Each structure stands twice: as C-alpha cells, then as structure tokens.
Amino acid sequence: MNRILRQRSVQLAAAFWLVCFCAIFPLSHGTLPFNRPALADAPFLKQVLQLPIVLVFVFLFLGVIYLVTRRRTPPDMAARAPDAPTAWRETLGLLVYAAVVLGLGQLVGRHFGGEGIGLHLNGSLFGPTRTLAPAEVYLWAAYNFVLLAALPYIFFRMRGYSHTALNLKSANIKNDTLLILVVLALESAADLSMSGFLGLTPRQMILGGSLSFLVHLFGTGLPVMIFIYSILLPRYARLSGSLVTTTILGAFSYAAIHIFEYWTVYDTPAHSTLSLIFVFLTFFSPGLVKSFLTVRTGNAWVHLWGYHAIAPHVTMDTPVIVRIFGIR
C-alpha cells in the first residue's frame, strides 16, 4: 500500500480530487445548478458529501476485486500495445476523435431530438428531466455504438491487433466468471435498494429490463468498453509503464467521456466549472473500478458484465425505459 501511495500519479490524482471537491463551495454558494430529479429533495450538503462517501465504497470494492484475483498475475498489458511512438500517435488520435464525436453528438442530438447526445440517456442514474421519444433512444444508442464502438473496433482490428491485444479475450474464464458474479451481486444489491426497480410489475421488470439492457449495452456499455478499456488502456500501460497510473488514466478517461451529461449546465463560467467538477467527481470513482477490473484480468468484458451493462443500467434505469416505451 505504501508503494502505491508513493506513486506520483496517485498523489496527483488525490490532490486533484481534493481541489475539485473544495472548489465546489466557493463556486456554488450553497446552490447547485443541475437538474437531477432523483436528488431534487436532497440538501446541498448531502449532495456534496455523497461524493466522498461513494469513493470510500469504491475503495472497498477495489479490495474485494483484489481478494478475488489475488492468486492471479496481472497480464502484461503494455505488451499488448505497439511501441511507444506509435502508442502516442494512436492515443492522441483517439482522444481527438473522441472530442469530435462528443461535440458532434451535441449538434446531431439537438437537430433530431430534444438535446445533445451524451454517454447517458436523459434519466439515467439521476432521474428524467423530460420524457424522451423512443426514436431518440434508438438514435442515441446507434450514434454511440457506431462511432465509439464499431468503427474504432474495426479500425484497430484492420491494423492487426488481436482480441487479446484489445483486452477482449479471457486468460482465466473461471476466475473472470467468479469476479463478474461477485461484483455484480454487490453492485446490484446497492442499486436495488435505491432504485424503483422492485416497485415495477413482473412484466415491466422482464420487458423493461430486457430493453434497458439492450439499449444501454449499445448506447454506453460497448462504447465505453471498446474505446477506453479495450483500446486506450493498453496504450496507457505502454506509455506510463505503471499499472497504477494506467488505472488512474482509465478512470480519468471514463469521467472525461461523460462531459456532456444531460444534467450538466454550461451557460456561465461558474456553472461550467461546477459541471466539469461534478462530472469528474461523479464518474472518476466508478471509472476506477472499471479500470482495476480490466488491469487485474486483462479482460474488458469483466467490467461490462459485472459493473456496467446490468448494474446499474438494468437495476437503476429500467423504470426510465418503462416510462419511455409505455410498458405496462
């Protein structure tokens, strides 16, 4: 543990997290500009203090993941990436490409629907601010899947990278399966205690849950898995030479790709800064779990099935999909 805490990347990440957290108070003056219906009745201080509380639970999660995988030797992820100069070019190209896709998604979404396209549907995790049309859901899922999953996957396969090099092949199916089940059970228990899933009818659970699984798999699960944890993570490992730094960079990338959440507000400098801070503080924590799962196993599918596709996007978001599609 001391060896990890001495790493510069850990110290910088901790300092950045603390600075962002402390900046909330002078920037907000006790009021947050976000429209997050699930937190509408929560006092300001409760909304802010949830952020470090979640981080504590995330570290407990990391401990569980380590215990389940303690007998395994983490894969040499850096060896799955090309030489350093090529890795730099590919990484910079990917980051620029992601920025273009995310920016273009704001224009496409507003032209064809009611708001820009982000990595989460309106209503995901924090409750809906409006009712989407089913066509908006299909557009969202198709846009993200094609541009952030399908095209990057095809491009890097054409460049000769194998499924192993892309973190898409298991080296220990038995332990990967156990890890998925343990993580999924823990996360699902937490989600179900807070969501409205258990209040749905059996038909809504089955039909709505299945539909929620599918649209979120294509709209956010596969895009995140392919773009960050299949392609970027090995390159981070090659360039940093550290699995700890790779884990942190993966978490930063996961937060960054959510910059245009439906609840963010970019109308003033203060609101913009608060939006960036809350995006980072909200998504850095789960990004750590996803990164650590992938670093420990070398298999990006583990995080998808254990900590994304089902929990939270079925356990938390099914009521939103039931409402959009009018499932009774």
> What is the first-to-last residue Cα distance?
51 Å
- Main sheet attributes: strand count, strand direction, barrel closure: none
What is the average per-residue confidence, as pLDDT, rounded to a whole number? Answer: 96
Number of domains: 1
Give the amount of beta strand, in percent.
under 5%
Give the number of DSSP strands. 0
Compute the CA-based radius of gyration: 19 Å
Helix content: 55-70%
Spans with pLDDT under 50 lasting ≥5 residues? none
Number of helices: 11
What is the secondary structure topology, with strand pairs?
Layout: H1 2-5, H2 8-28, H3 44-68, H4 84-112, H5 134-158, H6 173-194, H7 202-240, H8 243-256, H9 269-297, H10 300-307, H11 318-325
What can be said about this structure in brief?
With 328 residues, the protein is mostly helical. The chain has eleven helices and no strands.
How does this structure look, described?
With 328 residues, the protein is mainly α. It has one domain. It has eleven helices and no strands. It has helices at 2-5, 8-28, 44-68, 84-112, 134-158, 173-194, 202-240, 243-256, 269-297, 300-307, 318-325. Helix 5 runs parallel beside helix 7 (202-240). It is globular, with a radius of gyration of 19 Å. It starts with a helix and ends with a helix. The relative contact order is 0.17.
Labels describing this entry:
mainly alpha, 328 residues
